[in-house]
Amino acid sequence: MLVSVIYHEDFGSKGHSVLKARIKPSFEALANSGLLEGDDVQVFEPEPAPLKLVEKAHTPEHMESMRSESYNRMYYDVALLSAGSVLKAAEMVAKGEAENAFAYTGTAGHHASPGSCWGFCYFNDVAIAIMRLREMGLERFLIVDVDPHFGDGTRNFFGDDPNVYHINFNHQQSSNFDGIKNNYDVGIGFDAKDDTFLSELESAMEMAKNFDFQICFVIFGHDSHADDYGGFELTTVAYPKMARIIKDAAGGKGIVFVLSGGSVPEVASKAIPEVISVLAGR
Ligand SMILES: [Zn+2]
Q1: What is the distance in A from the centroid of ligand 1 to the CA of 97?
Q2: Is there a smaller number of Cβ atoms within 10 Å at the N or the C end of the chain?
Q3: Any idea which fold 3-279 has?
Q4: C-alpha 211 to ligand 1 mean position (Å)
Q5: Angle at CA 105, nearest 5°, toward 102 and 111?
Q6: 17: CA distance to ligand 1 center in Å?
Q7: How far is the CA of 228 from the centre of ligand 1 (A)?
Q8: Per-residue b or e along 220-249, where b marks 16 or more CB atoms closer than 10 Å to that residue's CB
């Protein structure tokens, strides 16, 4: 079972100032874990996402703002490379070249809408990847956004699309499921702990099993950790358990993990190798 890890050193040197410090230490922890010594976990380098595809996802106004506004322009190249990382991960899984994948990024994507962006996000990497997979003939996707912040950009892309089932963890006090449009907002409040998070994930994945998806994207924000900035109170023990729940529910269908929020190197250095280890069936 090949897990492809998509990584570029620019994510650590040129990524968003809040997100980048975790990149290099976590990749070194992955190398030191021994996981890369077999054939079942391999590292690949991404190319920037093709402009033609990015321009299909985002409005001309947003593209112009990315090129001209100084606070966007400084991350333009690394945002294209981040989208390219998710694209390569998704393509490898869709083509059967890898069974599962983990895409490192230097900027995040789930707060990027067709015409705007905020929150360390510039281009919606998962939306761009889904557009490419649809060009390849795939149609139905499950998105599991476990980043504690509501993925408003992704919802703006796919909220009305019943062929994209969007599980979206957030800080609300209650959950809401729209079974027509397949949007499931999982509100577990601020300060949510491992047991709440994992049991809500388990029931959401149980429901999603009835949706006949072809590929599962996991928007993996470890800003959900108690030591990180996202407002949940998870511990590192939760992340491999999370990956196991998703993998069991996916039943052998391809899973693409997409690195999202999170800043603390120690959290990333523990969580990322352990998640990849679960994806590899270790
Ligand atoms: Zn977040």
Answers
A1: 30
A2: N
A3: Arginase; Chain A (3.40.800)
A4: 26
A5: 110
A6: 14
A7: 10
A8: bbbbbbbebebebbbebebbbbbbebbbeb
**19 alpha carbon to ligand 1 midpoint, in Å?**
10
Q: What is the pLDDT of residues 63-95, one digit of tens each?
A: 999 999 999 999 999 999 999 999 999 999 999
* Span from the CA of 230 to the centroid of ligand 1 (angstroms): 5
282 C-alpha to ligand 1 centroid (Å): 28
What pLDDT, on a 0 to 100 scale, did the predictor assign at position 268?
98
Q: How far is the CA of 232 from the centre of ligand 1 (A)?
A: 10
- What distance in angstroms lies between residue 120's CA and the mean position of ligand 1's atoms? 9
Structure tokens, 128 = 């761009």
* CB 225, CB 260: distance < 8 Å: no
Please give the distance, rounded to the nearest whole angstrom, from the Cα atom of residue 37 to the centre of ligand 1: 32
Residue 82 CA to ligand 1 center (angstroms) comes to 16
Radius of gyration of the chain (CA): 17
Q: From ligand 1's centre to the CA of 148, what distance in Å?
A: 5
* Residue 85 tokens, joined: 């990382």
CB 111 within 8 A of CB 153: yes
User: Among candidates 124, 198, 108, which has minimal Cα distance to 159?
Assistant: 124
Question: Domain coordinates of the chain in residue numbers?
Answer: 3-279
List, as one string, the DSSP characters of 128-153. Answer: HHHHHHHHTT---EEEEE-SSS--HH
Average pLDDT, the chain: 98
Question: Do the Cβ atoms of 106 and 82 come closer than 8 Å?
Answer: yes
The beta-carbon contacts of 182-186 under 8 Å, at least 24 apart in sequence, are: 182/211, 183/155, 183/159, 184/208, 185/150
